[in-house]
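Methods — Computational structure assignment.
A single polypeptide chain was analysed. Its primary sequence is given first, followed by the predicted tertiary structure written as structure tokens.
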Amino acid sequence: MLLQRIAPVCLLTILTAMLSLAQNAETPKLPNTQAGQRVAAYLKAFNSGDEGLMREFFSNNVSPASLQQRPVEARIGIYKDMRANIETMELRRVLEAREDFISILVQTKKGEWLNIGFEFEPKTPHRLLGLRVEDAEPPSTAGGASVAPVAMTEREAVASVEKYLNDLVAADEFSGVVLIAKNGGPVFQRAYGLASKEYNIQNRTDTKFNLGSINKLFTQIAVGQLLEQGKLALDDKLGKYLPDYPNREAAEKVTIRQLLSMSSGIGDFFGPKFEATPKNKFRSIKDFLPLFAGEPLAFEPGSKREYSNGGYIVLGAIIEKASGQDYYEYVREHIFIPAGMQNTDWYEADQPVQNLASGYTREAMDGRTGGARKNNIYTRPAKGSPAGGGYSTADDLLKLARALQTQKLRVPDFRQQGGPTKPVSFARTPESFGGLGIAGGSLGLNALLEIGPDNGYTVIVMSNYDPPSAEKVGKQIRAWLASVRK
């Protein structure tokens, strides 16, 4: 399962178990509440294929604050991409229903399963704040056994992947690198498309691609290391490390745990201020803080979760204070070097770097899509951050996967209370390994790393096209790998 979040930027989730649901024979019913009626209206408008109805839905059902952050036309662009990928969806089960949150299980016309979570205002009229879309496993049958896919050999699965990618490339729907490894060793590795359309330079298997939010994993690992060294504690307040943080309420209330879990109430740095600022101005953590640090908290810390790139910028600043090192230097020394990741870094946009892929997008900053692909140079910071935007190669991400599987690097378990850190366990057998999945994406970039649990396979997809170019490929590969005979 992999989270696809409808947010101004990228995409991120870490998974420790596969979803298992019992199928309900009764026709699912949404609650007869304001929130339930809005979900029903969304499904009806989405399935209609009518952009006018979707525009009307967004105008009448999304909160004004959310519309200010992402206007209707930008949401229409996202809807068109989703519609092209999944066509229609049918409600199969209501998983959770509250006044401020509804989660549903749907099946697409193509047979895929999705878990869609709708977040609403806590008070009436409960207008929509945002939604997130997460891949889901097919629900179990009445007898408890899931419907098994058609079995195939590894060679057949790889052949299917190769044909699939060739078709996508012919349709100009994919450009990048795909690597599939079994027990740490590659069984498939290919490069497709152009790293530079301007100079007609081909992508190579060792080309460096923008990671998007996959960089958040490095920030989490760094926090875990400092936790184990006793230099941080999960329930320490932000202000302990950043006493001059502009928002006093945030400094006094927000904890490191809440920053990690995106339940702090700190907002995003993407928005009008970011768009109005020349991108060459963003080269350090302190350059990002003025975009959001002085803004009021979006909600009481710990009361809910909302995607926050800003929170990870703050974590980067805390890492600097706790370690006494520049964030970028700390990660290089304590993560990249131990893992052997020699081609991973936050390369600056105006510095010449060999074998680095440019990003190409069909979407403008206002969310409109279509037309010829354009270089994304004006849509991203000059240098990435603790929230995303660094670069790596498929080989380096495989080294990262090995380091995680062997516990050379560990991710702190910040979801539960108690204890300074409880690292995620990465066992070596599919039976006990829950797996890890993380993705990142923005205009002209999309990357994905998944470790297990499909028969010990690791899947890495890196693309210099818009989302979901890499995630779409990863999802199809995962389906084929799940059917490989053990």
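Note: The chain has a mean pLDDT of 85.
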